Amino acid sequence: MTHPGPGVMPGLEPPTAPAAARSASADAGEDAAGPGAALQPQLDAFLAGHEDELIAFRRDLHMHPELGYAEHRTTRLIAERLRAAGLDPRVLPQGTGLFCDIGPAEGGTVALRADIDALPLQDEKAGAPYRSTVPGVAHACGHDVHTAMVLGAGLFLAQQAAAGLLPGRVRLLFQPAEETPGGALDVMAAGGIAGVDRAFALHCDPRIEVGQLGLRTGPITAACDKVYVKVTGPGGHTARPHLTADLVYALAKIVTELPSALSRRVDPRSSLSLVWGRISAGSVANAIPDDGIAEGTVRCLDDEAWHRAPEMMKALLQSVAAAYDVEASLEYVRGVPPTVNEAGSVQMFRDAATPVIGEEGVVPTPQSLGGEDFGWYLESIPGALARLGVRTPGSSGEYDLHRGDFDVDERCVAVGVRVLTGTALTALWEGGRPGDAEPVQGAALA
Ligand SMILES: [Zn+2]
Ligand SMILES: [Zn+2]
Q: N or C, which end of the chain has less CB nearby within 10 Å?
């Protein structure tokens, strides 16, 4: 749209011609660009009345951050605002986090997810009037921004629903405890994605500028699990290793051979890696101990390799241990799966974002080695996570996530509301049913 109303960043208006062309073709019903362009005047009007409120909401959360499973105030504020808009939010059984349905159940259901928890970090921002008032707790991952954006999208969609304009149902998911992690599993246990056809989420990205959206088909975040190996043997004198089991030698073999054998059992593009962080055995120079341990982390970019990793590792461990006549056991603790973006859902993000930020605003984004528990939802249903630019154009500050000085250019809130709203409506209007979209496998590791 061309008029820079509130919420539209100067310089971010898309070119007039494509937007107008899309509006005109929207009458055909099967507009490939989705409803994004036609929506913008209504979003302009909505944001003129609500952008300041959403930014104030974000700042309030920022000043009162709450750690995972302790987000009681945050949950209450979100629920109160949704009720004030005539909606009926449902708080999760453990008391924090909530979800809220908008629109008719017929016609498919699309979820927009925000995470609401903060981090155990000191807010080190200098000069921001909205810095954290809670010592040692800060919204340093942008979840306050995610919450404000999904709330904004929900308030707008509630207006659409009241006017009978919503072609299906949108479920707002305000998830607790992303950083802990585990909140996604609680949402799922409470039926939060039951009946949901697709799920979408935005995450703040300080590496790209406000007015940009980073998209990627296939895995966009990584898995990170922990492994604990315990090795036992009879122990004995170091003069007679042949009469016992040379446990320290065996443990050293396990520690060196497991990572290299593992990397040769999976597609190298999956980047399955095992890195040890702790090893311990024995207490004196001349006695072979009867037990030893090794602990490490497993990171993986590929969902299939991640699923196979525990069994593979167990088998390899047994074969190495057997060669040296020691007993070995493996405890494999799952973290989060890789978040694997489905191609059709990524395209919906693209279709919704283009009228808002222009084609040049949509940029490719690399896969992060960080974890994100949104990946749990996408194990069950298709969807996508996108990176929302939050850096002020031209700024010299090197903000990063999980740092005490992390902050955003708050114009990102309006961009996020527009993108989320457009994406949800695109998904509903295009059917958004699982199986409609092209499979993701081939593109996953491209
Ligand atoms: Zn984080
Ligand atoms: Zn985060």
A: C
Does the pLDDT at position 176 exceed 70?
A: yes
Three-state secondary structure call for residue 276: strand
DSSP state, 122? Answer: -
What residue type is assigned to position 203 of the chain?
Answer: H
pTM score, two decimals? 0.81
d(CA 310, CA 355): 45
Phi then psi for residue 134, to 5 deg, are -105, 115
* Residue 141 CA to ligand 1 centre (angstroms): 5
Reduce the DSSP state of residue 47 to 3 states and report it: helix
CB 98 within 8 A of CB 83: no
Q: What's the CA gap between 152 and 421, in Å, rounded?
A: 9
């222009």: which residue's tokens? 358
CATH of 223-336, one of 3.40.50.300, 3.90.150.10, 3.40.50.2300, 3.30.70.360: 3.30.70.360
Ligand nearest to the CA of 388: 2
| Environment of ion ligand 2 (residues, CB < 5 A) | 141
Residues of the chain with CATH 3.30.70.360: 223-336
Looking at residue 27, the DSSP 8-state letter turns out to be: G
198-217: pLDDT as tens digits: 999 999 999 999 999 999 99
Cβ within 8 Å of residue 398, ≥6 positions away: none
203 closest CA partner among 214, 187, 194, 211? 214
* Token pair recorded at residue 10: 């100067």
Query: Considering every ligand atom, which ligand is closest to the CA of 385?
Result: 2
- Over the chain, what is the mean pLDDT? 88
In this structure, CATH architecture of domain 16-220+339-444: 3-Layer(aba) Sandwich (3.40)
pLDDT for 203-255, tens place per residue?
999 999 999 999 999 999 999 899 999 999 999 999 998 889 999 999 999 99
| Residue of 440, 422, 357, 365 lying closest to 149 (CA atoms) | 422
Smallest-distance ligand from the CA of 144: 2
What's the average model confidence in pLDDT over 321-337?
A: 95
Q: CB of 36 within 8 A of CB of 356?
A: yes
Question: Residue 214 Cα, ligand 2 centroid: separation in angstroms?
Answer: 15
Give residue 265 CA to ligand 1 midpoint distance, Å: 31
CATH 3.40.630.10 in the chain is located at 16-220+339-444
In the reported structure, the alpha carbon of residue 261 is separated from the centroid of ligand 1 by a whole-number distance in angstroms of: 32
What residue type is assigned to position 325 of the chain? D
